[in-house]
Amino acid sequence: MELIFILSTLTGPLLLAAMGGLTSERSGIMNIALEGFMLTSACVVAVVSVATGNPVVGVLAGLAAAIVMALLHALLTQAYRIDHIISGMAINLVALGGTNFLDKRFTDLSRQGEIPQIPMLVFDVLAFGLPVLLWLYLKRTRGGLRLLAVGNDPDKARQMGVDPIRVRYAALAATGLLCGLSGAMIVTNAGRFTDGMTAGRGFIALAALILGGWKPIPTAVACLGFGALYTLQLQLQGSQLFGANLPSQFWNALPYLVTVIAMAGFLGKSRAPAGLGKE
Amino acid sequence: MKRGWVFGLLAASLLAGCGPSESTRTEEATGKTVTSETGSTAEKKVKVGVVFDSGGLGDKSFNDSAWAGVQKAQTDFGIEEKHVESKSVKDIETNLMTLADQGCDIVFAIGINQKDSLEKVAAQYPDTKFAIVDAVPNPDLGLKNVRALLFKEEEGSFLAGYLAGLVTKTGKLGFVGGQEIPLIKKFYSGYAAGAKTARPDIEILPAKYTGDWNNVDLAKAAANLLFDQGADIVYHAAGRAGLGVLDAAKEKGKFGIGVDGNQDGVAPGNVLTSMIKHVDEAVYSTIKDVKEGKFSTGEVVYDLKVGGVGLTEMEFTKDKVGEENLKKVEDIKAKIVAGDLKVPSTLEELAAYKPQ
């Protein structure tokens, strides 16, 4: 039971962030800024929740902040044609420095106790439900097909009367929303904001997205795999393997080791959206 | 044109992210009181530079503690202070050099990560004094201007483990570390030895290491696993990530033990105690030595005897611990201070340790 609980808290943020990455990359915008969106949201949720005393307002503010950051990424890459990777990197750096500043500026350093929170269960339900909804959306709705069309071939989409730029802004708003939820989930579980608390999970979500071939359900399975590996490595630390007591570093590296192996084995099958990074 | 945007943005973000975000304070108020008190002796203010570790201010432990020492020195001596946070290891060298360039009399490098950078910078600025926390520069370099501020974490951790051994009901204790490195093993060794001394039949569950100093979720998960396996007290030495351990203790109604700074208030009543490392004291006394011209180089060790490490007052948990147990902790502390009890600082020493 405890393991399932741990699994859900470790997998949830990955699921949400990976789905955020999916809407962005499926629309053709490369996105390494998931981490930045998550961190921004986490910080704003904490600061606003404390300031208003209302966790719902806090989460809404966090989502809004992440959406603004995501739209900034869309603006930079679409209107100003900045390289997608460079824009993403810049956003990550701004988020890292900005949240550090925000946290220090608006919270008392000796602040004790916790921020007001909404129940984790809400996030769990969202995290595990959204991949299915997204899958249905992409498969069954006109909007979903447009998103896929723009990501696969923006020129053809344009000829068919779909405006790629508009679709991409909408897709990035969704990215912001989903990554914002991910950040909110992280800060809710931790009970407070600490610097750099997303700890690279935006990038792990991206790895899961690639492993899952940019498809909602396989990506969700990859996220679940990562969550399970994190849980497993914690659980197995200190236990014997083939009679040897392995150092904790081996267990810590396990999720990444498996990623490398999986990438090497699966990358041939995993195909990126054809229009990724195209104008 | 487009490139210009890119570089401008990148530069801006780099500045925001890792530039020396200086907040220079000359502390006018204290400056005034000093002159009014001492009157004619218009001494030159000591200029102190501090380079914080990547954890930065607000970690409620290490860096905050160092900062408290600087602030105390500021109130007492009216020093001039400059501090910089390092967002990543590659900034440290630049930050140390910047502070030395600005004419600081003494530059503090807070944390083990700054060792390599400090060795380089200290050699380049032989006239500037340096002090580094938790690390000893390579003796082969023959640096004549560096003081190493070291702590006997194992002694403080021993007390924490001893107390945990007295308080535990299940007879099982847990430990969550940031990384399995010698420094963190010192914490673990002292803790385990203390627990065994208090209760020989105690079971110390295998230590969990997050491999990350930031991932609060992971540390919380590790603590939850340990609580699930029957531990009722978990000690952490995992930096900011370790706050997750205290959070888990709160949710489960068990005990966590804080580290470095006083973390008792993070989850009042569920943090049994905190093993305090008085970085503030080390920083303060070093500034004092500089001020009085008594600065010496080499290693300065802050142990239990001089109050460099120790437990908190247990503001919120005193009643749960009980007078009798507190007394026992005091007794064992006296033994360590008197040198009758040698606390193990490595896993090898721990294996050879026999509770008395």
Question: How would you characterize the overall build of this protein?
Answer:
The complex is a heterodimer of chains A (279) and B (356). Chain A is mainly alpha-helical. Chain A has a single domain, classed as Orthogonal Bundle (ABC transporter involved in vitamin B12 uptake, BtuC). Chain A is 75% helix and 1% strand. Chain A is built from eleven helices and two strands. Chain A has a two-stranded antiparallel sheet. In chain A, helix 2 packs antiparallel against helix 3 (55-79). The longest helix of chain A is centred in the middle third of the chain and has 27 residues, at 164-190. Chain A starts with a helix and ends in a 13-residue tail after the last helix. With 356 residues, chain B is of the alpha/beta class. Chain B folds into two domains: 44-151 and 279-302, Rossmann fold (3-Layer(aba) Sandwich); 153-276 and 322-352, Response regulator (Rossmann fold, 3-Layer(aba) Sandwich). Helix content of chain B is 45%, strand content 18%. Chain B has 13 helices and 13 strands. In chain B, the strands form two sheets. In chain B, strands 6, 7, 8, 9, 10, 11 and 13 form a seven-stranded mixed sheet that branches. In chain B, helix 9 links the parallel strand 9 (233-237) and strand 10. The longest helix of chain B has 17 residues, at 2-18. The chains are: A mainly alpha (279), B alpha/beta (356). Chains A and B meet through helix 1, helix 4, helix 8, helix 10 and helix 11 of A and helix 1, strand 8, helix 8 and helix 9 of B.
